[in-house]
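Need fresh eyes. Consider my entry:
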Amino acid sequence: MSGSRDPEILNIEEAARLLGVSVKTFNKVLHSQELPARKIGREWKFSRQALIDWVGSGRSGDFYREASRHQSDEGEDGVLKPQQRRESGAGDAAQPARDTESADRG
């Protein structure tokens, strides 16, 4: 049951507080998972009940399956391995990386 102290529609700070995480962590989840949300103008809005239902519908096994898929991209220390360069040579030297700092100076 909701009282007058618990609004049904939350902004990002309230939604993060409801889930007990920082706004930074909440933003990461917002951009990487299917979180129930609407962007209205420049602000994200969240249904209190939809967030509670979303948390309740999650399964730890889903998280561990996702983590194990990405494990092959990581070294033993958990750091992502650099991508292997292609051996073909064709198109490898297409464009050098742009130095944005020096481009901004002049």
Observations:
- The chain is about 45% helix and 10% strand.
- Confidence is low (pLDDT under 50) at residues 84-103.
